[in-house]
Task: inverse folding
């Protein structure tokens, strides 16, 4: 992840066409898609640039924010800003772009008044309308398709750069582990065990994957101190008040009667305890560590409104948590699960009446990390799980 720095790349600093093999070829033409999700005072933007010219070995995309927007952080590019001029330069892993290939990166920023779409995108100093120019110009305009749609349309993006192909459009990050170079998780991911560690393990695996060639494998062992996760603590603050997480999971043992967790998110508004997603009584379940409430209620009627997690096949899970309202929505393979969803205010018998009781009505989470692994609390049993094609966004991503 790159954070906006102090010095922006001026047009004179952009790569130009020379005889050096290490210098990027100038772009002959490009088109831009600029997708925005915004809230009062803040926004995220995902930028896709199609290279219509020769293959590139490195790239710099530039534009101007004439309405006073400010970039605060970024992903999949080194983004810097000076005044109204903004430059996004490739990371070490995504500089190579084939002719006709797509450059994809995103950023978070602030705005006031208006949040106008930039009209002077250039790739390696060449306006995206195809006219060679050393400096961005408002005319001609690039082919830009702005949208504030809350539901992105999943489109394929290149593999091999840490971005995997299924459903990566309009995301803060989308990772299929393809850029991992060893069995030890690195980059945005690290192995994590809170308080104590035992015999559970987490590693990058090259034998099983939902897409591409790699996934994250967790060998889960019963007992709290055997818990283990892979953790990303860099991105949750980039998505605004709504966190939408999509991932694919495959596991080998049916969810047990005892309580287990395989996704956990630290909640800064609940004493840095975890918001947990896992299972109990053989079905999927949310658990709030701060008060140990569950969604749905752990009654036969409540459990019946949840769903089991099939074994030995890849399953698509989508989790959405609204920090402004406290609402939770859960989908399994594209179908919303009634027993795992609540609107933050209206108790439903056997589903959310306990979740929303007491201080639950005022629960407004502030999530700060994202963890995938295995945690059991005695009697939860063992399981082996694989996670792949993990994505984070401020709106529903889809499978």
Result:
């Amino acid at each position: 992840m790159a954070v906006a720095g102090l010095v922006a790349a001026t047009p004179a600093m952009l790569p130009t066409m020379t005889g050096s093999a290490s210098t990027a070829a100038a772009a002959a033409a490009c088109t831009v898609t600029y997708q925005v999700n915004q809230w009062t005072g803040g926004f995220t933007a995902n930028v896709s640039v199609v290279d219509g010219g020769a293959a590139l070995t490195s790239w710099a995309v530039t534009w101007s924010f004439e309405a006073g927007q400010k970039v605060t952080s970024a992903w999949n590019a080194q983004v810097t800003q000076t005044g109204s001029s903004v430059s996004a330069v490739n990371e070490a892993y995504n500089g190579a772009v084939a002719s006709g290939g797509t450059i994809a990166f995103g950023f978070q920023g602030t705005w006031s008044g208006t949040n106008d779409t930039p009209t002077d995108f250039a790739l390696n100093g060449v306006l995206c309308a195809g006219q060679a120019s050393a400096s961005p110009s408002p005319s001609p305009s690039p082919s830009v398709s702005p949208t504030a749609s809350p539901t992105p349309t999943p489109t394929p993006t290149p593999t091999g750069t840490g971005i995997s192909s299924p459903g990566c459009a309009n995301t803060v990050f989308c990772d299929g582990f393809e850029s991992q170079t060893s069995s030890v998780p690195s980059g945005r991911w690290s192995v994590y065990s809170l308080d104590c560690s035992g015999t559970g393990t987490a590693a990058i695996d090259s034998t099983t994957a939902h897409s591409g060639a790699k996934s994250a494998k967790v060998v889960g062992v019963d007992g709290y101190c055997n818990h283990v996760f892979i953790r990303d603590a860099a991105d949750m603050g980039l998505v605004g008040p709504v966190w939408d997480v999509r991932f694919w999971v495959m596991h080998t043992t049916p969810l047990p009667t005892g309580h287990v967790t395989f996704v956990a998110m630290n909640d800064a508004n609940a004493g840095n305890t975890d918001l947990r997603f896992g299972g109990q009584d053989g079905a999927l379940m949310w658990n709030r560590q701060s008060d140990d409430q569950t969604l749905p209620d752990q009654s036969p009627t409540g459990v019946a409104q949840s769903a089991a997690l099939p074994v030995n096949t890849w399953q698509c899970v989508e989790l959405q948590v609204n920090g402004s309202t406290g609402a939770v929505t859960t989908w399994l393979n594209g179908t919303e699960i009634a027993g795992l969803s609540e609107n933050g205010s209206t108790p439903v018998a056997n589903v959310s009446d306990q979740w929303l009781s007491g201080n639950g009505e005022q629960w407004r989470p502030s999530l700060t990390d994202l963890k995938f692994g295995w945690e059991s609390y005695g009697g939860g049993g063992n399981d082996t799980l694989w996670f792949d094609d993990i994505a984070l966004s401020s709106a529903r991503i889809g499978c």
Remarks:
- The first strand starts at residue 30 and ends at 39.
- The chain has one helix and 24 strands.
- Residues 300-304 form the longest helix (5 residues).
